[in-house]
Give the backbone structure.
Amino acid sequence: MANSNIATPFPRLIARIIDKVIVTVPFFLWFGGGDQTMIEPIAGGILLVYVVLLNYLWDGQTVGKRFMKIRVVSYEGGKLNIFHYLIRELTFNLYPIYLLTHSWIKTGWTIWMIATILLILQYGRGLHDMFGRTKVITEAVEADVQGNKKIDSN
């Protein structure tokens, strides 16, 4: 039988950190001497494109998610399209709103992130999952009849 366990917050966080390091560290090493107010939004935009495209091309996974053996799937069943992943990432990151100087925007962004964390802890889905109609699951490793391992993500 398929296993559709909701992923816990820890592997989700580690997967996000892995992806961020893969994209941003080389970018900051290459352009690190420049203006930080320009580098951060550009690196964030590259990270957005990286996450959306890899999720779409790798069936709900990025390098970090593959390493942590988790996957983004549709909450309602069915196949996700690129717009699900785009909406999910845009609502998670709100690029580049956190760079703005108005304190009320930073406060709103902080509340948004805290709400997302609390929802993930309570229900296994954050605001970005709800807007993107997704959930993050752990991949179950099952043995088939011949004794070979296979990964089933449904």
